[in-house]
Specification:
Blueprint lengths: L3 H17 L14 E2 H10 L6 H10 L5 E4 L2 E4 L19 E7 H10 L9 E3 L3 H8 L5 E7 H6 L4 E3 L5 E3 L7 E2 L3
Antiparallel strand pairs: 1-3, 2-3, 4-6, 5-8, 6-9, 7-8
């Protein structure tokens, strides 16, 4: 059994190279974000970060956020890419409300512009307040915003549901956001 600190390092390494900088280790993601597992493991080893197949399997299977998927000898990140990929996720009808965790320093910009994807392809929304609170707390004291997803959907905004339960949308205009207080 690999220790937890090592698995966290492997997970962060995968996120960096499967979501943001595959070229840094010489791998190329296909149009849908997939790369052969063998190619990933060989590239990681060649760049000084060897990952065993067992470690890879532990990270993929044990990640509570299901950040990665393995199919047919290939691996990809479930969402969160800053490199161009088409995850080919079906359009889905969202629940009435979804949630977004942020910090107080971002609220003024969100009030003015809404939620934007920033360096990613989509805005990420959580299905419940607890998850949004955890997401927001990664950058400080969390502020949880409620998004009127039903009204957005009725207005023609497309939502997608990733394999790990994160809801994705291109932009959330301020008029659909309920701010605390």
């Amino acid at each position: 059994m690999t220790d937890e600190r090592r698995l966290v390092k492997v997970s962060k390494y995968l996120a960096k190279h499967l979501r943001h900088q595959p070229e840094r280790i010489g791998i190329e993601l296909d149009a849908r974000g997939w790369v052969e597992v063998d190619a990933l493991l060989a590239a990681a080893a060649a760049h000084g970060f060897p990952i065993s197949p067992e470690e890879l399997e532990q990270v993929v299977a044990g990640n509570d956020k299901r950040r990665y998927a393995i199919e047919d000898g290939r691996i990809r990140a479930s969402q969160g890419h800053s490199v161009p990929v088409e995850l080919d996720l079906p359009v889905a009808e969202p629940p009435a409300f979804l949630y977004h965790g942020t910090v107080a320093g971002n609220v003024a910009a969100i009030r003015a512009e809404g939620l934007r994807p920033m360096g990613r392809h989509h805005v990420h929304l959580s299905p419940d307040r607890e998850t949004a609170t955890r997401v927001g707390s990664r950058r400080g004291r969390p502020v949880v915003l409620a998004v009127d997803a039903a009204a957005m959907h009725a207005a023609g905004h497309e939502f997608h549901l990733s394999a790990n339960g994160v809801w994705l949308v291109g932009h959330v205009p301020p008029s659909f956001i309920r701010f605390p207080g």
